[in-house]
Design goal:
This protein is of the alpha+beta class. The protein contains five helices and ten strands. It has a five-stranded mixed beta sheet with strand order 3-2-1-5-8. The N and C termini lie far apart (65 Å). Bound molecules: copper (II) ion.
Length: 284
């Protein structure tokens, strides 16, 4: 029963190449760094596959060719210099190729490119990743048990609540074609920011600020993620969504979000005043 279920699942995966590709390789298509991580992963995977097939093939061939039935007396072979030098040099060469390819690809994974459209956002930081022209959109990501909070714009770092910047929970809104740099912090325990299609996983560590970036090419896209560090009982519910808008839609969303927050704050202030006046709220 279990075997047939396994076979059926494997069969379905083989028949759906896209699902299989996603099953064994990283997600990509959402940001250049995610694409570079995916292509580097595939290069290593293909080289490993060739080595695997070669080694396993030689093993199966030898087991069959030199089986005990046909060769009752084992041949005593003491080394083969050419073969030994060959596989030592071959293995070293593979490692050198993997090292070179990794170091060639690394800058495009770490360093953010310039925005292609819309964004004229400028912010200065000594250690945050910055595109060559310095223009980026900064969003501060704060992890807390068990939700992500996003504060939009310069000055959000260490200042997310006092600077009256627009913010949102769980759903992040970003403009397409713009280099978005995330300043990541945590209020309580270690969380981990990870939207697989938008690049690598970055921990949110209390007392530290960590960084990552992405640049989503198309408006209308929606990317799903999940806190990738077991952070407590409700960890599984700590999901994240990134919605990509056109730069114009983004500006509009930002101002309407700002407006909504201001209105809600004014209402709360009014309510507090009424409750205090009627003696229903303590002076604390
Ligand atoms: Cu978490």
């Amino acid at each position: 029963m279990v075997t047939s279920l396994c076979l059926a699942t494997t069969g379905c995966l083989i028949l759906a190449p896209d699902a299989l590709a996603r099953f064994i390789t990283p997600e990509s298509g959402g940001s250049p760094n995610a694409d570079q991580i995916d292509s580097l992963y595939k290069i290593v995977l293909y080289i490993a596959a060739v080595v695997f097939v070669g080694v396993e093939g030689a093993l199966v061939y030898s087991i069959f060719k030199f089986r005990a039935k046909r060769n009752p007396v084992a041949a005593q072979i003491h080394g083969n210099t050419r073969l030994e030098v060959g596989w030592t040099v071959g293995a070293a060469l593979i490692l050198v190729i993997l090292t070179v390819v990794t170091f060639v690809k690394l800058p495009s994974i770490i360093n953010p490119p310039n925005s292609t459209s819309g964004g004229s956002f400028l912010s200065a930081s000594l250690n945050a990743p910055t595109p060559p022209n310095g223009k980026k959109l900064t969003i501060c990501v704060q992890g807390r048990q068990y939700i992500w909070r996003y504060t939009y714009g310069n000055g959000c770092l260490n200042n997310a609540f006092s600077s009256k910047l627009p913010y949102s929970y769980q759903e992040m809104y970003v403009p397409a074609g713009t280099t978005v740099v995330l300043d990541i912090q945590s209020f309580d325990v270690i969380h981990s920011w990870w939207i697989p299609s938008l690049g690598g996983k970055v921990d949110a560590v209390p007392g530290y600020t960590t960084y990552t970036w992405f640049k989503a090419p198309k408006a209308g896209a929606l990317f799903h993620g999940q806190c990738a560090q077991l952070c407590g009982r409700q960890h599984a519910y700590m999901t994240a969504l990134v919605k990509v808008l056109t730069p114009a839609q983004y500006t509009q969303w930002l101002s309407s979000q700002k407006q909504m927050i201001q209105t809600a704050n004014a209402q709360v202030a009014q309510l507090r005043q009424i409750l205090t006046q009627t003696g229903n709220l303590g002076s604390t």
